[in-house]
Design a protein that fits this description.
Number of domains: 2
Order of helices and strands: EHHEHEEHHEHEHEHEHEHEHHEHHEH
Helix content: 40-55%
CATH superfamily of the largest domain: Dihydropteroate synthase-like
Structural class: alpha/beta
CATH topology of the largest domain: TIM Barrel
Distance between the termini: 45 Å
Shape: elongated
CATH class of the largest domain: Alpha Beta
Length: 384
């Protein structure tokens, strides 16, 4: 088959009519003419039917001649309408398809660059007593005041968790997690904080996630990377973004001699598998987090920070979360309270390479640093 892109200013309606699209289809598809346009020739009819379904599944569309669904002709021409982001997702989905669609998917991927996303700051509030950063611990009405201060300082999102995931931390039951969350979540809900900023729940238990989503939370931050089918179902049902984080092992075991043959390749393979699972469950609004400090040595963390640009081809926003973590101490001995300069250095590097969500404890300092960095080098279409 052959593929060539149509000029954006061209008369698309006449092209639809030329290849034989029925009148009702022309009217519907003409409304989508602001998307990128590709004319595909020498397309096997079964391939056209598969391609149309896959295009629709990612929000794109394919204009085909009348009678294509019944395979009246052996070969057809078609017009593909899609945004760059949709093309990236469609290219991945076509990898497993027959009739030459795998090659078409690879060609589509080559025609687009990595998508860009608005730069956002995610503030961190810990509703527990054993977080590695004591200054981030809070709860109840105090948490509302801290959240409001973060909003004033420039936070776009606020991540709230009741279970510590530091190395060696002890897991708790969903019942206890909800009991810890309840005073803070109810206080935030009463204050309508969720109407001023997107609230993220740092959890992987369906019970706690359901509780949060019912009270205004709009993002699931899952350190298990969408391992639970129930969590995927919740993200789909509530239509909220899901952050997929990579972790080797569990918080109890992750720093017991972590090992990789190629950390970037292995994390990429993990993302590809989890993206496919999430999309199959109806979740397409995803965020990817390489999981700095979660089952990684210093060299692994540094490699993943420097590989942010590589992961952009996956087509989803990248979250970087190295705030005051121990890799800074491994480079320059320091206690948690003194690691803000190292945190800023890491996060600025990650954003320069392609990360677009910065998870941090120090919102005001990050806002200023990113504002200045973007003025010096406009590497993001930032809202900062």
């Amino acid at each position: 088959m052959t593929l060539f892109e149509l000029a954006p200013e061209g008369d698309l309606q006449s092209v639809f009519e030329q290849i034989g699209v029925d009148r009702a289809g022309v009217a519907i598809l003409a409304q989508k003419s602001q998307m990128r346009r590709f004319r595909i020739a020498q397309l096997k009819t079964p391939a056209a039917n598969i391609l149309k379904q896959e295009a629709i599944s990612v929000g794109a569309d394919l204009a085909v001649p009348a009678g294509t669904i019944c395979c009246e002709e052996e070969w057809v021409e078609a017009i593909l309408l899609a945004t760059d982001r949709q093309l990236g997702r469609l290219g991945r989905k076509l990898r497993a398809q027959p009739f030459g669609l795998k090659a078409l998917g690879e060609r589509l991927t080559q025609l687009i660059g990595p998508p860009s996303f608005d730069l956002q700051i995610m503030g961190v509030l810990n509703i527990n007593h054993d977080s590695f950063n004591p200054a981030s611990r809070t709860g109840g009405d105090e948490a509302v005041l801290k959240a409001e201060a973060m909003i004033e300082a420039g936070a776009d999102l606020i991540d709230i968790g009741a279970v510590s995931s530091r190395p060696g931390s002890t897991p708790i039951s969903p019942k206890e997690e909800i009991a810890r969350l309840k005073p803070t979540v109810e206080a935030l809900y009463r204050a309508k904080v969720h109407e001023r900023v997107k609230l993220s729940l740092d959890s992987y238990t369906p019970e706690a996630i359901t509780y949060g989503l019912d009270r205004g939370f709009g993002l699931i931050n899952d350190i298990t990377g969408g391992q639970s089918e129930a969590v995927l179902a919740l993200a789909s049902r509530y239509r909220v973004p899901l952050c997929l984080m990579h972790m080797q092992g569990s918080p109890q075991t992750m720093q017991h001699n972590p090992h990789y043959e190629d950390v970037v390749a292995e994390v990429e393979a993990f993302f590809i598998e989890r993206i496919a699972r999430a999309e199959a469950a109806g979740v397409s609004d995803l965020i990817l987090d390489v999981g700095i400090g979660f089952g990684k040595r210093l060299e692994h963390n540094l490699a993943l920070i420097n590989a942010q640009g590589h992961f952009r081809h996956l087509g989803y926003p990248l979250l970087i979360g190295a705030s005051r973590k121990s890799l800074i101490d491994a480079i320059c001995p320091s206690v948690v309270a003194d690691r803000l300069p190292g945190t800023l250095a890491i996060h600025l590097r990650a954003v320069q390479l392609g990360a677009s969500i910065v998870r941090c404890h120090d919102v005001a300092e990050h806002y200023q640093a990113l504002k200045v960095a973007c003025a010096l080098q406009p590497f993001q279409s930032a809202r900062v």
